[in-house]
From TrEMBL:
Domain of life: Bacteria
UniProt name for this protein: Peroxiredoxin
GO molecular function annotations of the record: antioxidant activity; oxidoreductase activity
SUPFAM superfamilies linked to this entry: Thioredoxin-like
Keyword Transmembrane: yes
Residue ranges constituting the Thioredoxin domain according to the UniProt record: 189-327
């Protein structure tokens, strides 16, 4: 299944290609300067994506496919940013391109990438009007910055944009919190609602309910043994469980109705050394109740049984630390 991050990467690459020609034909930038902007972004993207191998080399050696599904997180972003700064500085000096000229061209392209990011983010939270409002602001700033000629005004635009993003994000967070408090008595699968309870048999042959984990944070994960990103995700979940299992429960619901047989599930679990319980959704009733379309899909549930977030695509160890422990 294609996950959100992959869609963002594809969209970014397509937009990079379009921005290249936008810079050359609309902004009248020299091709050599657009090469610097284009190459710095592409190389930075590759470094960010492959940095997972630097942060977790053992996991990559054990399963090289993890490079497809995970990234180096904050460390990867820092490495990519440092590379882009030094790469850009070196090539501006080498090509004798003035910094002011570079800023004039790079600023609207920067806002263009923000448009892509916010549209991608908004697709995951269509009800959050503040994300869409930020996207509209990014479009306006993109248009305005394309017509500005002075570096000082572009810097002012850059700072103003980030102040607005911070304000809108803060208002969005406060609105979500208020909505969650209002919806906390409702049972449903939306953020802020109480996760619907269910009972399933585990791979070990015992009955288990979601509600028995009240008092703990829960990662409710839907997966299948034949799903490549699920296979990459499971060792990450096991590592997280070994570290934080006393405080966070992992409820892994296998889509057994889509498996060949129980043996395929058991073989995979034993092969990966998974020690948390695996629940078997043999009729597909639970995955249907939670409207699971793409796997893996995970719901982060708090100690009171309230859904705090939903994630489509594989979760890495670092993502689980960041999202689960901060909820």
């Amino acid at each position: 299944m294609i996950q959100g991050e992959s869609l963002l990467l594809v969209a970014s690459l397509v937009m990079t290609y379009l921005f290249f020609y936008y810079g050359v034909f609309v902004l009248k930038a020299e091709r050599r300067m657009m090469d610097v902007i284009f190459n710095s972004f592409i190389y930075g993207l590759v470094i960010w994506k492959l940095s997972y191998g630097i942060v977790h080399p053992n996991m990559v050696l054990e399963n090289p496919l993890t490079l497809l599904y995970f990234n180096g997180g904050v460390v990867g972003l820092v490495l990519a940013a440092v590379f882009i700064v030094f790469y850009t500085y070196w090539h501006l000096k080498k090509e004798h391109i003035s910094f002011d000229t570079y800023i004039r061209v790079a600023t609207p392209i920067y806002f263009g990438y923000w448009i892509v990011f916010l549209l991608w983010k908004g697709s995951g939270f269509p009800e959050d009007r503040f994300i869409w409002l930020q996207a509209v602001v990014a479009v306006v700033f993109f248009i305005v910055s394309s017509r500005m000629k002075t570096t000082r005004k572009l810097w002012q635009l850059f700072i103003s944009f980030h102040i607005l993003v911070f304000i809108f994000s803060s208002i969005s967070d406060m609105t979500k919190e208020a909505t969650s408090q209002q919806a906390i008595s409702n049972i449903g699968i939306d953020v802020g609602e109480i996760a619907p309870d269910f009972e399933l048999m585990t791979l070990k042959g015992k009955k288990m309910k979601l509600s028995q984990f009240r008092g703990k944070k829960v990662i409710l994960n839907f997966w299948a043994s034949w799903c490549p990103p699920c296979r990459a995700e499971m060792p990450e979940m096991q590592r997280f469980y070994e570290q934080y299992g006393q405080h966070v429960a992992i409820v892994a619901v296998n889509l057994t109705n889509k498996e060949k047989n129980h043996q395929a599930v058991e073989t995979f679990i034993n092969e990966k050394g998974v020690s948390f319980d695996i629940m078997l959704d043999e009729q597909g009733t639970v995955s249907k109740k939670y409207e699971v379309i793409t796997i893996p899909t995970s719901y982060i549930i708090d100690e009171q049984g309230v859904i705090r977030s939903k994630h489509v695509g594989p979760l890495s160890y670092d993502m689980m630390k960041r999202t689960v422990l901060s909820e």
